[in-house]
Amino acid sequence: MRVSVITACLNSAETIGQCLESMSSQKYGDVEHIIIDGGSEDGTQDIIREHSRSVAKFVSEPDSGVYDALNKGIAMATGDVVGVLHADDVFEDERVIADVADAFERSGADTCYGDLVYVARDNVDRIVRRWKSGVCRPGHFRSRGWMPPHPAFFVRREVYERFGLFDTRFRIAADYELMLRLLVRHRVSTCYVPRVLVRMRTGGTSAPRIRTLLRTFSEDHRAWKVNGFPASVLTVAAKKLRKLAQYFPGLSR
After folding, report:
1. CATH number of the domain residue 7 falls in
2. Count of the separate structural domains present in the chain
3. What is the pTM of this model?
4. d(Cα 20, Cα 48) in Å, to the nearest integer?
């Protein structure tokens, strides 16, 4: 089983090195790393070229944002399974891809996901928040605002071919809309890998600023509507409350 991992980046010289090292350390033989750069001018491209032996495909050109870049990467992917590793993030350890591939092989599922921890921007060893996904239960998307962490979410490429890529009309919540579309609307099968897969630096596009929070709330609400479901304000509010609970271990299930 080949696993393709997509990294979208733009002026990420501060963190892209650790991302690439994390990727190249994976103890799994058939991995394809695709990097889509939006035209970085801060040395990011030089760092990527220094790691060219572990990079299968590298494209640098203007794009319309991170979801557009990820769509480009998915379209280029040749793997049976596709995952995402953002330029600010690292895998938990060298066994992540091997464990994900094993989960797909054992379960036969269309998708799989695991847990995630948020770490300090200047120190990936300092955990500031934990996202323990737990097993996906029917109705939890709506009743509890549940969703898996997108950086720890892997999808068979044929699922993207059947049900579509990221909807770039969503500037912040295209990952939520995608998972809602796949797991709720089309009910594709999924499998939980009960361990941390990704360390994600705090900050970024969806950082908790008031304006960003309001836009995310609006886009989350719209994600239900475009998929043909009644849009519940309570569901979207529950999603936000679950994230607050992630600061307190044991409460975010």
Report:
1. 3.90.550.10
2. 1
3. 0.91
4. 8
